[in-house]
Design a protein that fits this description.
about 15% strand; four-stranded parallel beta sheet; globular; Rossmann fold; 2 domains; about 45% helix; 10 helices; alpha/beta; two-stranded parallel ribbon
Length: about 300
Amino acid sequence: MKKVISLVLVILVAVGAGLGIYFSNSNHSNNGRDDKNRLNVVSSFSIINSIVQEVGGKYVNAHSITAIGADQHDYEPTPTDVSRTQNAAIVFSNGLNLEKGGSGWFDKLMKSTNQKSVDVTSEIKTIKLTTKGVAGLDNPHAWNGILEGIQYTKNIEKVLSKKDPKHEAYYRNRAKAFENKLQALFEKWNEKFSSLPADKKILVTQEAAMTYFARDFNLQTYFIWEIDTESNGTPAQIKTLVDNLKGKNITSVFTEQGESTKPMQSVIKQIGAKISGELWTDSVSKKDGVVPTYYDLLNYNAKTIYEGLSK
């Protein structure tokens, strides 16, 4: 009986190994394309994925690793994420240390799938963090700036065109159209923000996720914490913000979607302001939500902030 069991185990191992080789070869042989011959493109999170869809259109099969609304810092990739990443022709990442934080899941995924990611933030003038422990590092939230979004689009188009030169003109035309759309959006809101008096051009948020947006529109920024860590909204951070806002007559502040508002509630009780809106800073929404695309997210945030500061 023991001999029979041993023989069965040997057969199972051999079959398993054979299947592993088969699927490995199958993944490799798809050449980064799906059954419709579209380029498989995977992005680290939904905002980059949305831009990829804008540029890639019908020739790209796009997938966001991080699910909509999920925590980018401690995400646990699903089997589908692993499979899609393994079969990708391109893996886009933000860079600027975004994917390096938290549990290190992104680097582990790249290693396990034998992939290398391409950062989409090249040629962007970065803003440095100032908080002790991370001072001097880049603030990764460049996508929240409209002008920076134009550069994201340019960078993504270049990579798609290089990987799929047959459709280079298609990608270039779609990218240019989206860049023009973003430029028009910037000009629309720049006219409005420029009309605000100086004492209204102060943007107060929980996290410093809108610093690039603020730079685009010449706004001053104040925040409770600069970047997500295990210590967000501490009494010391709240006190620092309250002290910095003394004498500035702040009437409107903003929170971020997916974050607890308790830290900001503590702030507004002390400065006499109110929360004027929730910003989408790390993810687009589902298709039936308020910001299903990157363009929608930028426009929604600009509208929410302008209306809040105008009061």
